[in-house]
Specification:
Elements: E1 8-11, H1 26-37, E2 41-44, H2 54-60, E3 66-68, E4 73-76, E5 81-85, H3 90-103, E6 108-110, E7 115-117, H4 122-129, E8 136-137, E9 151-154, H5 159-171, E10 177-181, E11 191-195, H6 201-212, E12 219-223, H7 229-234, E13 237-240, H8 246-251, E14 254-255, H9 263-271
Parallel strand pairs: 1-2, 1-12, 7-8, 12-13, 13-14
Antiparallel strand pairs: 3-4, 4-5, 6-7, 6-9, 9-11, 10-11
Helix pairs in contact: 1-9, 3-5
């Protein structure tokens, strides 16, 4: 497709825009600024919850719609407008809590505004230090009935925890959608996202593009994680980062440089 024919640029955050130091390169910032100045809309698409995305939105001055919670929410944070939301049913949240207790798993529950846990863990420290999100410590059995849960999370950090997490995922018995997210800041750590059935970044992109009246053929998307596959296969032009997983590169139209070498800016220079 010829240059300047795209109307929407959709960018994953961790491993695509944000590097292992938790920063965005000056070159990537400048490239995104040029994209916006040219009239092309920029949307973030992330497995992070909305609260963990706000600092990036602010840093880039993005006054637009974004995809968060791995596709469970498409919203405009500035106005709190939600154009698509798919929470986990209350009954399934209750089942998640019961199964987590039987498997001795530290389950996390996310709403638009809160991050609920039952105790401090390695993950709560990571969310606080890297994502800027502070936990609310509660008995999860006291919140499932009156809170709108958009995402559950499990973050195993040891061999034993990984074994229990696998048992937990098996017991969910395909009742929920599980996706894997990673960040260069914590290599080797799997952030397991638990979502309502049918939720994906790709479906969220369809909702966003329809709302903006942008044909999917005029969408350019970049990502690096397995949870970005649905996003890339939905967009008209799919760009995988140089640091992307092999299965992501396989579905991409083009593989750019890695996040540490401003692969986002390189792709923008080439295609926009």
């Amino acid at each position: 497709m010829a240059g300047n024919s795209y109307k929407l640029l959709v960018v994953d955050i961790d491993g695509t825009l944000v590097n292992r130091h938790g920063t965005i390169s000056d070159r990537d910032k400048e490239a995104l600024s040029r994209v916006r100045e040219s009239g092309i809309q920029v949307a973030l698409s992330t497995g992070r919850g909305l609260q963990a995305t706000l600092s990036v939105i602010k840093e880039l001055s993005l006054d637009s719609y974004h995809i968060s919670f791995d596709g469970a929410l498409v919203s405009h944070p500035g106005s709190s407008e939600e154009i698509y939301v798919c929470p986990i049913s209350k009954n399934l949240v209750r089942q998640m809590i019961d199964i987590a207790r039987r498997c001795r798993i530290d389950l996390e529950l996310f709403t638009v505004t809160h991050y609920f846990v039952e105790k401090e863990t390695w993950s709560t420290d990571a969310h606080r230090d890297f994502f800027g999100v502070y936990p609310t410590i509660v008995d999860l059995r006291q919140v499932w009935e009156h809170e709108r849960i958009l995402k559950g999370g499990v973050v195993p950090t040891s061999f034993q925890e990984k074994a229990r997490a696998e048992d937990f995922c098996r017991r969910l018995d395909h009742r929920l959608h599980l996706s894997l997210a990673r960040t260069p800041a914590y290599p080797g750590i799997d952030f397991i996202n638990i979502l309502a059935p049918g939720v994906s970044k790709g479906k969220a992109l369809e909702k966003l593009a329809a709302h903006l009246s942008v044909p999917l053929s005029e969408v350019m998307a970049l990502g690096d994680g397995v949870n970005d596959v649905s996003l890339l296969t939905t967009a008209g032009l799919a760009i995988a980062m140089g640091n992307a997983a092999d299965e992501v590169k396989e579905v991409a139209d083009y593989v750019t440089l890695d996040v540490d070498h401003s692969g986002l800016a390189a792709a923008i220079d080439r295609f926009i």
